[in-house]
Amino acid sequence: MxxxxxxxxxxxxxxxxxxxxxxxxxREIGSRWRRLSVGRQALLTLAHLRMGHTxxxxxxxxxxGTTTAYRYVTEAxxxxxxxxxxxxxxxxxxxxxAFVILDGTLLPIDRIAADRPFYSGKxxxxxxxxxxxxxxFGRLLWASPALPGAVHDVRAAREHGIIDALAEVGIKCWxxxxxxGAGGTVRVPCWGRWETLSTGQKAVNRSHAxxxxxxxxxxxxxxxxxxxxxLRCSTTRITKLVQAVLTLHLTSSE
Length: 254
Fold this sequence. Notes:
The chain is of the alpha/beta class and 254 residues long. It has helices spanning 12-29, 38-51, 55-62, 66-81, 87-94, 153-160, 162-169, 199-212, 215-223, 238-253; strands at residues 100-108, 119-120, 125-134, 140-143, 147-148, 173-174, 186-187. Strands 1, 2, 3, 4, 5, 6 and 7 form a 7-stranded mixed sheet that branches. Helix 1 packs across helix 4, helix 1 crosses helix 10 and helix 3 (55-62) packs across helix 4 (66-81). Belongs to the transposase 11 family. Residues 102-249 form the DDE Tnp4 domain.
């Protein structure tokens, strides 16, 4: 395998955070020597999350074994995921906003046709459903744990407690028709065929669509970490990966 120098468009604050976490971790477990320094391990992890490089590619580039690359990434992801904000944290942040925007996104996975729980009829592919909460400017506030792709958005929002959490503090929430019947403070477009809606209802839907479209920026922010564009790992690890990415994003945007 050929090796070449490359760059990663990640802020230095993210690298510093992960380096500090790994240094503290090594002290706690009394790790005396490793093939890579904490800084190199942090860089390896960021390359995996941001660029989506496989363990074999990382191993070749950093001069370690494939198994070692896997262990290094797994350790770092666990540390980052532990710092991810909870829904309660996100709601406290959102309470200072005029409203929030809620939407679901599908993270594609390499499942086979037999894995029906992971197949999204909406997207016509296998994946994991992640709920995204954004502020009025489309900035990512929170991303939920991952559920199988067959789970509908409104069901996922209820299972995560998003609707109840927002209603409890009275935060208005804009969402698409996939959340019809959610209740609480969730606002969805007027239901019906376009030709059967009144002029007023059409105007409301246009205004609603303009506001709700901003959530696409938050989803794009999440998927800027290329690993999440095509996941080839166990579905049980995806939540940790999403939480790790959320931690890194929030650290970089501070």
